[in-house]
Structure formats: structure tokens, C-alpha cells
Amino acid sequence: MKAKPRVKICCIASLEEAQAAISAGASALGLVSAMPSGPGVIEEDVIAEIARRVPPPIGTFLLTSETSAEAIIAQQRRCGTNTLQLCDYVDASVYRELRRELPGIALVQVIHVTGPESIEVARAAAEHVHALLLDSGDTTLPVKLLGGTGRVHDWTVSRKIRESVKVPLFLAGGLKADNVAEAVAAVEPFGLDLCSSVRTQGQLDVIKLEIFFAALAS
């Protein structure tokens, strides 16, 4: 019997939301710093407070739109998370600098699945990071869309990416209780990442969390 995917709840806005997500069964939390667009952005001092208070087994993901090593390193040191989620694409030299300057900090590269061309992008990034996260954004738009779309992308492409890389893979983009079983069967990801489907009027909804985890367990 295959293990159920880990679950990361993104767009955590407060310590109370962090505690609710963990109580529901989340293995990781997404903490969104400044972005060109999308939901869930909070101040860095709030991110730092949540990261300090969350128990060590839980992944604290700093979502960053920065693309220079210097800016990303400085931001992680201010926020103190144990994981960096790179929401935009960066040069290979940036990965090397991050590994050198931030030993022990996990690197997760977001791959925006726009079509089959995303497979090669994922393969290249996988050589440098600890995990990939497949989402439904688009970095080619005038205002980059780096996540939080609530849209499902082509899971057949996601499956091909999973089969062609050796690092763990998180699946994001429009996941909810009524499609999570199909998503897991189609992609077989290591983890799932969700935000809008477990919120009501922007607030984390414990009932929707319970429904999602029940659907995942069934």
C-alpha cells in the first residue's frame, strides 16, 4: 500500500492558522512574502514569528519571488524558515550560492506547468534542488503569476515530470476534496500543496480542512 502524500497548506496568515493547519494534518506550511501578484502575502516579521513558533518536524516554506542569491539569502536569514520555495526561475549559479551560504536549508523550485516545454525546465532545476513543486502560474505574463491561481494544469505533463526527475515532487494548482483522489492517481506526487480550496472569504476554514483530509484518506 502506497503512503498518502504529505500535505502543505499555503498562504498561512497567522500563528493561529498555522496551528489549525498542523492540527488538521499538514506536514508543511507556506508563508508568502512579497509577490508581483496572487494571494496570501504577509509581512516578513509575521513569517519570522510563525517560523519560530512552529515545531521542528513541520516544514516552514518561505515563498520568495526574489531571483538573486544575495536577496534570497538575506530574506531567508530575516525570516528563519527551514525551506525556501523559489517561485520564479533562477540561474544555476543562484542554486550553488544558496547551498553554500544556507547549509541545512531545503530548496524547492516551483515549476509553472504551461505545457510539455515545462518538462525540460523541471529536469534542469531538479539537478540543483531538494524538491520540485508543480503549479499553474506563468512567468511570461507582463505581471508574473507565480502561484495562488486555484487552477488545475495538465496532470499528464506533471506525471511525465515526476517520472523524469529523482527528487520529490509536490503537486499544486486547483486541488480540492473532490479532485484530490484523481490528482494523486494521475501524478503520484510526494506531496500536495493547497490554499484557496480550504479557505472561506480568505480565512482558513477548519471544516474544509477536515473534508479535504478525509477525502485524501479515503
UniProtKB/TrEMBL annotation:
Residue ranges occupied by any N-(5'phosphoribosyl) anthranilate isomerase (PRAI) domain in the UniProt entry: 7-213
Molecular function as annotated in GO: isomerase activity
CDD domains: PRAI
Pfam families associated with the record: PRAI
Reactions catalysed, as given in the entry: N-(5-phospho-beta-D-ribosyl)anthranilate = 1-(2-carboxyphenylamino)-1-deoxy-D-ribulose 5-phosphate
The family this protein is said to belong to: Belongs to the TrpF family.
Protein name: N-(5'-phosphoribosyl)anthranilate isomerase
